[in-house]
Design a protein that fits this description.
The chain has helices at about 60-65, 130, 145-150, 160-175, 185-190, 195-205, 210, 225-230, 250-255, 265, 270-275, 285-290, 305-310, 340-355, 365-375; strands spanning about 40-45, 70, 75-80, 85, 110-115, 115-120, 180, 180-185, 215-220, 240-245, 280-285, 315-320, 360. It is an alpha/beta fold. The chain has a single domain (about 40-90, about 155-375), classed as TIM Barrel (Alpha-Beta Barrel), CATH 3.20.20. The strands form 3 sheets. The chain has an 8-stranded parallel β-sheet with strand order 7-2-1-13-12-11-10-9. It catalyses: a sn-glycero-3-phosphodiester + H2O = an alcohol + sn-glycerol 3-phosphate + H(+). Its EC number is 3.1.4.46. Belongs to the glycerophosphoryl diester phosphodiesterase family. InterPro entries: GP_PDE_dom, PLC-like_Pdiesterase_TIM-brl, TAT_signal, TAT_signal_bac_arc.
């Protein structure tokens, strides 16, 4: 399943401080991190502050907002009873305590989703009530022991709970926080009789916050973004983001339909012009913009940044992580591969920001804010 996993300027944050109980400002104006400064690249909190708290939890979102993220990301999947919940993927075994829950032992299955096979537990085999009995855990505790200390403390969230929490935080701190939801495995869920898109559209429409606040909708698939553009049209608070992986891999919907289009073809000038017909943002992995040499150091940039701008697309890349194992060799320090390297992560982000990024995903938005502040 293609993911913003471990492959490794213009804003539209609504103006006006929302006070508790007050309606959000109706107009959308450029966002700057400080009064009088130029517009800065947007900092997207990848699954919340997922380097510091278990991903997609209230703790992760709260930490991201406190650390200055412009947007928080809820990845969306569906429960058995059709409720959208915030999990990075359908597979539950790595991010919840389901493996330690004997009452669900009989639901262990082997399943292939978007070309990847896993054996374990899957979200669409659980009702929301059952899912709520599980607790979130850290995905990579060997690299993030500080986050792992929060294991077992937080529930799985519904999309509506995420919206309500972000709206409340926005009203409390007087700063509008955007949402950057990703529709995960759309083709898989549609074939399981649990299509995501109509429920997603209905949820956006049902909440005052998502009718006004900035929302960027992402997907690695193509057909769902085309459908969303047709259904939602062009709205001042909405953007559509086409995510891509690397190389000859096909989007899941293209592969399922027997199509030939690959992510590599989508990243060509012709492919980018096609994307611009239905999306607003092109979002490749960082190493597609500046690849790594065999020695792990950064190579020369590719033409993708310039090509995306020429096609009229915003460029927002994924994902920066603060541990040495994920950082280019240019910026690693003397710690081990799992060691946290804040200075190196900031330096790496600034190198990529030189390409003129409009935004970027990071597991540690506090470091992202520091990187942007240096521009």
């Amino acid at each position: 399943m293609t993911s913003k996993r471990f492959l490794s300027r213009r804003g539209f944050i609504a103006a006006g401080a929302a006070t508790a109980g007050a309606a959000l400002a109706g107009s959308l104006l450029p966002h700057a991190h400080a009064a009088g400064t130029a517009v800065k690249p947007l900092v997207f909190a990848h699954r919340g502050a997922s380097a510091l708290r278990p991903e997609h939890t209230l703790a992760a979102y709260a930490k991201a907002i406190a650390d200055g993220a412009d947007f928080v990301e809820p990845d969306l999947v569906s429960t058995k009873d059709g409720v959208l919940v915030a999990r990075h993927e359908a597979f539950l075994s790595e991010t919840t305590d389901v493996t330690r829950r004997p009452e669900f032992a009989g639901r262990r299955v082997r399943r292939t989703i978007d070309g990847e096979t896993h054996e374990g537990w899957f979200v669409d085999d659980f009702t929301l009530a059952e899912l709520k009995t599980l607790r979130a855990i850290e995905r990579i505790p060997q690299s993030r022991p500080g986050s792992a200390k929060y294991d077992g403390m937080f529930q799985v969230l519904t999309f509506e709970e995420v919206i309500d929490f972000v709206a409340a935080q926005s009203a409390t701190i007087g700063r509008v926080i955007g949402l950057v939801p990703e529709l995960k495995h759309s083709t898989y869920f549609a074939r399981a009789g649990l299509p995501l898109e109509e429920r997603f559209i209905a949820t956006l429409a049902a909440h005052e916050y998502t009718r006004r606040a900035p929302v960027e909708i992402q997907s690695f698939e193509v057909a769902n973004l085309r459908m969303l553009r047709e259904k939602l049209g062009k709205r001042s608070n909405l953007r559509l983001m086409q995510l891509v992986g690397v190389g000859p891999v096909k989007p899941a919907d293209v592969a399922a339909d027997g199509g030939a289009l690959t992510y590599a073809e989508m990243a060509t000038p012709a492919g980018l012009r096609t994307i611009a017909q239905y999306a607003d943002v092109f979002s490749p992995p960082t190493r597609a913009l500046i690849p790594l040499k065999k020695n792990g150091m950064l190579d020369a940039p590719t033409s993708i940044a310039a090509d995306a701008r020429a096609a009229g697309l915003r460029l927002e890349t994924w994902t920066f992580r603060p541990e040495n194992r994920f950082i280019a060799a240019d910026f690693r320090d003397g710690g081990g591969e799992h060691a946290r390297n804040e200075a190196g992560s900031i330096a790496e982000m600034r190198r990529y920001l030189e390409l003129g990024l409009d935004g970027f995903f990071t597991d540690d938005p506090g470091l992202g804010v520091k990187a942007v502040a240096g521009l």
